[in-house]
From TrEMBL:
It comes from the Eukaryota. InterPro entries: DUF1759, Peptidase_aspartic_dom_sf. This is Uncharacterized protein. Gene3D superfamilies: Acid Proteases.
Length: 693
């Protein structure tokens, strides 16, 4: 009986043992499935990074590759646990095949990552922030490298110090009145140092190497007297004014005409002082004519003005100071191309290939071009890598400038022929333009804006003179129009807070601003603005107007009651639009018709929240709705629940554009918001939300 009870106790254990092993295998299979999904996701992520543009950082790729290796290692551990529990031979083979298959998938992409990183070893690192571990490894590597180089330099410095002591002891043995060693023998000693003294190989041309070598050697007290021919040439040494851009030229000339001659150190020191400007001369004040002071003076000058970073910064600043290329000026781009060549090639030589500063410089130079040349360059460089563009830009600019000069010469020749033909037809002789031409008002030798007759004339007379003599309305010069005035973005009328695009001397009151055509009567002008004084919303919205890379945000009045769109003169001037001749236009007012001579212009218009531009043509008037008062939407829309969430913008400036039904496609309602009785409603059109009521 006891034996039977004992066997009954053992039976559940014999049944449950394979069940526990099978459950363990199922649990491990779930873990293997999770690891498989993790491997799949990491494989996709790495494949995306390898194909991405711009390229991902090498440090990030190393981290992801290491993470993938870690998952594969964890999968190996799970498979080993399953092999210990599994007893079926077929299942054991399936587990091994499963792991080999997943391992092969991972190893393929890991190999691709390693090849990708190896190909990019020459690139500058940009991913120090990608991980703390990578940053610490980089610091350790740099620390070891610097320590190794420092030990080499210290060993070389000890040997050089010993050589310096030997040479100093030889010089001390000579009497002050005796002549020092011959310069050629001394130079041969420096060129062929004793055994054990190493010299750094010349891998690149260094214009200031003679100054650096002078610092590490003690010059003798005297040398042979200079020859007369060399003394006469020495007068041609330029004076260095402290500009880093001129330092290399001065250093090369001084080395050739002074430093390498057989003259005494005292004479070299005197010529050094004579070749320095007032600012630079302060640097070596107090030095004597001794060899030690001569070497120390060269050391100070080299460290102060010969720093490669200062030189690079000076050339970069010179490139940034080159003026932009003006649209429509055929002579401007060749001047731009010539101005960048020398500075650009020096900067490329000073910076390593792929440096971030070159990319920034390329972006700045491309934005200095006008629209036509920018599109040509963009089309030319579309197949180039980012680090190749700056190297190709200089040659491309020279070729484009050569082409522009060729066509410019043809245009100039054609213009001269046409002017000559006109002169013959009209019976006059064509004469060259005199740059020092007299005043057109009084024939005195001064500019028109400095003429006393012009200054004392009343404002209407001043405007008439400016128009008759072709003066710019903004700066009063006679060689350009106000639409292309170089001061168009910085100058404006300062009288009574006008802010208009005209000179303060040409400012007129509102009732006198009409220049051409009959002035509308008081009751006619009030027809256009008779709704201004109502306590409601007239549909004023902000819009973006653009022309030739210039874009301004202005206020526009949406008026379906007008069949013609209008734009203000001030906006046309800001956009730099050259207006055509005025034509006769009949304006249909409420009370009668009025004939005026007006210009018509065309530009692009879009809403502030849209990128879809539309062509917009309108008549040009002096002002558009001058008495329209702005409405504060920050206070108004909070009182109206149906308008509270709309992106309404403040319209706190004057209205410069009136949009009529001739551009009805811009005013088609796309959505409408309405409130209660006597509350304003909102309409969304192509230009944005318009509120009325």
């Amino acid at each position: 009986m006891a034996t039977k009870d004992a066997l009954s106790l053992l039976e559940p254990i014999e049944v449950e043992e394979p069940m526990d092993a099978r459950a363990g295998i199922r649990f491990l299979q779930k873990k293997m499935s999770i690891k498989k999904r993790s491997i799949t996701l990491q494989l996709k992520d790495l494949q995306s990074d390898l194909a991405s543009s711009p390229k991902r950082s090498r440090t990030a790729l190393r981290h992801k590759s290491a993470a993938l290796k870690k998952v594969v290692s964890e999968l190996r551990g799970i498979v080993d646990e399953a092999l210990e529990l599994e007893e079926d031979e077929e299942e054991l083979i399936k587990l091994e095949e499963y792991f080999v298959r997943e391992q092969s998938r991972a190893l393929i992409i890991i190999g691709e990552v390693d090849e990708h990183i190896e190909e990019r070893l020459d690139e500058a690192s940009t991913s120090f922030h990608s991980g703390q571990t990578a940053l610490e490894q980089y610091r350790d590597q740099e620390r070891n490298r610097i320590r190794s180089e420092l030990e080499k330099i210290q060993a070389q410095a000890r040997i050089t110090k010993e050589l310096e002591g030997e040479l100093n002891s030889k010089l001390e043995q000579l009497d002050l009145g005796e002549r020092a060693q011959d310069f050629d023998e001394y130079e041969a000693t420096l060129k062929n140092p004793p055994l054990g003294v190493s010299r750094r190989p010349k891998t690149t041309f260094n214009p200031t190497e003679w100054m650096e070598s002078t610092l590490s050697n003690n010059l003798p007290n005297t040398f042979h007297a200079p020859s007369p021919s060399r003394s006469s040439i020495r007068s041609e040494v330029p004076v260095f004014d402290g500009n880093p851009l001129n330092f290399m030229n001065w250093a090369n000339m001084f080395e050739s005409l002074v430093h390498n001659t057989h003259c005494s150190v005292a004479e070299k020191m005197g010529l050094l002082r004579a070749s320095l400007g007032h600012v630079c001369l302060k640097l070596i004040d107090g030095f004597t004519n001794s060899p030690a002071d001569y070497g120390e003076a060269l050391k100070l000058i080299l460290h102060r003005y010969g720093d490669p970073q200062e030189l690079r910064r000076a050339h970069l600043q010179a490139l940034r100071d080159i003026p932009r290329v003006r649209d429509g000026d055929p002579k401007n781009f060749p001047s731009f191309a010539d101005g960048i060549q020398g500075h650009l090639r020096v900067v490329i030589r000073l910076l390593p290939r792929g440096d971030g500063l070159l990319t920034v410089l390329m972006d700045e130079l491309s934005h200095k071009m006008d629209r036509e040349h920018f599109f040509h360059w963009d089309n030319f460089a579309k197949d180039l890598e980012e680090d190749e563009k700056i190297h190709a830009f200089g040659d491309w600019a020279m070729e484009r400038a050569r082409r522009d000069r060729y066509f410019q010469s043809d245009v100039s020749e054609g213009t001269r022929n046409r002017n000559k033909l006109k002169a013959q037809v009209n019976g006059i002789e064509s004469k060259p333009v005199d740059r020092s031409k007299p005043c057109q008002i009084c024939r005195g030798m001064h500019k028109e804006k400095n003429c006393e007759k012009f200054k004392i004339a009343p404002t209407p007379k001043k405007r008439e003179m400016a128009r008759n003599f072709g003066l710019c309305y903004l700066c009063l010069e006679s060689d350009h129009y106000s639409s292309i005035c170089p001061h168009i973005n910085t100058w404006s009328c300062r009288k009574d807070g006008c802010g208009g695009s005209h000179h303060s001397w040409l400012h007129m009151e509102k009732d006198n601003t009409k220049e051409v055509g009959p002035s509308p009567k008081k009751n006619d002008s009030s027809v256009q603005l008779n709704s201004v004084h109502r306590n409601g919303c007239l549909g004023v919205i902000p819009v973006l107007c653009s022309f030739n890379n210039r874009e301004f945000m202005v206020n526009a009045l949406v008026d379906e009651g007008s069949d013609t769109s209008v734009v203000s003169e001030s906006l046309v001037t800001k956009l730099g639009i050259r207006r055509p001749k005025k034509t006769a236009v009949r304006l249909n007012l409420v009370s009668k018709e009025v004939d005026q001579h007006l210009s018509s212009v065309k530009f692009d218009i879009r809403g502030p929240l849209s990128h879809d531009r539309s062509s917009f043509q309108a008549l040009v008037l002096t002002q558009v709705c001058p008495n329209l008062k702005p409405l504060s939407w920050n206070k108004k829309k909070n009182e109206l629940a149906h308008l509270e969430d709309l992106p309404l913008m403040e319209c706190d400036q004057q209205v410069d554009v009136l949009i009529g039904l001739d551009h009805g496609d811009l005013l088609v309602p796309l959505e409408v918001r309405k409130g209660g009785p006597e509350e304003p409603y909102a309409m969304r059109c192509k230009l944005g939300w318009v509120v009325r009521g």
